[in-house]
Ribose-5-phosphate isomerase A
Amino acid sequence: MTQDELKALVGQAAVQYVTPDSIVGVGTGSTVDKFIDALAASQIRLRGAVSSSVRSTERMKALGIPVLDASEVESLQVYIDGADEIDHQGHMVKGGGAALTREKIVADLAERFICIADESKLVDTLGRFPLPVEVIPMAAAQIARRFKAMGAQATLREGCVTDNSCHILDVRGLSITDPAAFEAEVTQWPGVVTVGVFARNKASVCLLGTSAGVKTLTF
Ligand SMILES: O=C(CO)[C@H](O)[C@H](O)COP(=O)(O)O
């Protein structure tokens, strides 16, 4: 199966986690696009969806899925999103699509994070994928120096302005052996808006697309 077919498989599988008449949290990316398409095709009646990006909002609206603002919602049963990496404990690296801040905000509203990913995303240790960090533009150089002091290399993502009018640093050369401690440390650096390690908001379930079908990992 191609990677695209594996994404479609897990996008479809995630629909079973959506309860009729509920409000669902929806992430961002090519795997989530497959989920949105499958959700629209399922004809499940929803109170609405809370979206993590302009991209997902536009796709859902075009397919007739009502979109609610995060501030209108106190809690969500589930948040469904992809990942750039996921480890065997459910910690993730996210933000390849630059939507990490809103993704973490919506994930934080949810009781359960359902991660949908193809098998190439499963890793033993986070850090192979360049770690996205959303930053206030005037702090980018100082934050890059802090990563350099850790032995890593941060580069500004060319031409990328986030939905929050901020910039993204992509950080190479990390081996994140303690995701919770790493997230807590980097989050408090001045000028960091969001670090793309999701440890506090880690996955509860991962639907992993494999050539043998969908494998369900629970954490
Ligand atoms: O974090 C994300 C966007 O900010 C995505 O979930 C992540 O990049 C995976 O994307 P895709 O499903 O296209 O592989």
Q: What stands out?
A: Residues 27-31, 81-84, 94-100, 103 surround ribulose-5-phosphate (CB under 6 Å).
